[in-house]
Fold these 2 entries.
Entry 1:
Amino acid sequence: MRYLLSFFLFLVFLNCQKKDNKPEFIKAKIISSKIDSLNSKEKVEEYIRGLSFPIIENFELQKLDLTHNFLEKFELKKIADFNREFDSITKIIADSLNISKSFYLMDIDNNGFTDLIIIGDDKGCNGGHDGFDQSCDFSAYCFMNFGNNNIKPIDLILENSVHKSIVPKFSKNKGLPLLEIHEPAEFNWKKEKTSSYKMFELTYEFGSLIEYNDNPQIYDIEKVEFKTETSGYKHPHFEILIKNDQTALLDAKYGNSIYENTKVYFRDTIPELKGKFRTNIKNNDYDNLVNILNYIDFPNMEHQYSINRLHTRNCSLKITYNNGKVKEIKDYGMVGTYGLRKIYELLFDFRFNQNWKENTTANTVYN
């Protein structure tokens, strides 16, 4: 009897294990593409300098046939070769992780096409104490490869600051390819610590690189409220409310243009979205918003994120869920996490990819 009981418990244990186990990861067979032939610094530089992209971040919203190559002067550089004084800790981290190259190849999203990670200097700024004659830039990008020369660039540095540097490293979780981003602690000119060391483990989901979650929860999201806040510059200012029946209100106050983040010389002539509007969010777009919010586990995120810099974008994201519970996230700099960055991109895009109609009866959107 004792043996029968033990065998029964063993079967129960095996059954539970099978329920907990996720589908086995199967690595996709590599499909040869141009990136696979990039085996030297010179070849990678030639390749990325020849890439051209629409001037707005969301290619699907491109209205004018305008492209640019923001990497036309890019110089690949090993982390150990940077001579900026605030990269000393980054160099230590890179050395400890054996990150000694300026580019890496790997299929991050497991679609069969090899993706490209680059580290270097895009010559986007000048600085230094000796006549401002040296570059002060540190850049890191991931080029997602979808075949047929369909390449999507993703900036791996959350905060756009000349003092930022990171260490990217490929890793795996139960076979799943992931990209680790190691961000060193920062210190001010008084050598006071202004931020702590961070490590982000990213996976390619929902069309972007966001923090990996091996056990996403499902929350009953009742409404999402989002507003941008002024910072002294001409950043877009708007408020949006989205309910779980997919009805939405938008109050576009000022600075809302599809080309708002570009340097197009005639951007002031591009029509600006302004006023109060209502719509029903398209099914796929609403599902995408809810799925990403669930995946990033918003209830367990910080209530506030901030960067040590003036005159930057900031916002407030308020989510009502599970019978009236409220999670509000204030983000000074709008770079709290990679997942939040994706949420902001979606909400910003909603201004231009939904069928808005004027709504003159509303006094406000955000409560």
Entry 2:
Amino acid sequence: MAATLTYLQLGSLGAMNRSIDSVALEERAATLAKRSIKRQSKLALLDLAVRCIDLTTLEGADTPGRVQNLCQKAMHPDPLDASVPPVAAVCVYPSMVSVAKLALAGSPVRVASVATAFPSGQSSIAVKVEETAEAVENGADEIDMVLNRGAFLAGDLSRVVEEISAVKEACGQAHLKVILETGELGTYDAIHQASMVAMAAGADFIKTSTGKIPSAATLPVALVMLEALRDFYHETGRVVGFKPAGGIRTAKEALAYLVLLYETNGVEWMVPDRFRLGASTLLNDVLMQRAKELSGCYQSDVYYSEA
């Protein structure tokens, strides 16, 4: 906490209020998304996309059976092709953490849990800390918390920092991803500032969206956040990861985010410890595209399980 407050007090918060040229930003994002990728590089990127997926189920109708099935898919995305790597994590509600932990025992797949009154974030700090601590106690390796957008938009940055710092402390050894819910922040400037504040307060990852509102991840928003990550690293030396989430459904979209990542932050960020894709339906399309690149023909999606 002391290091965080020092970083904010040094005047870095003023530098966070960066003015972004939206036209140039959107043009660059669109240009990078059109980059052609050769076959061998595409295969490598498709495998990387699988390894970076946080396979997610966050529905009110989630059951232990559904979560167990999802965990099996996470460990063995294509049961007929053992060369397909496992995904990075399975993301569930806190009530399903112990179920996922048991189902994933002995595998490299981590358990992630949303917390802090997901998706609104409208609860007290005490409740957010308690929910986080309970999820970690039940076996969560990672916590996805939601930014207090109300406090941020009201200009109460000290409260935003206080909440993130408190949840980070409650995480213990678990990694903390802070969800900005960029669709509610209004401008690219606000997204950049929120990214910097979240990182300064202790986030291990910053994440675009909850996936629970219509406006989710976009390439221009991702570019803003990736540039913030790069600038924060150059200023502090601390690595923070990035997770686009919400509305990413096709392999083509996933590859566009990976190209953006490579061009903005470099190859060092192209690992699951620094990049994740939050998705519930992306994996099957990546598997289909991978099979197409290997065999030369498409397989139907009926050959892949829904969970």
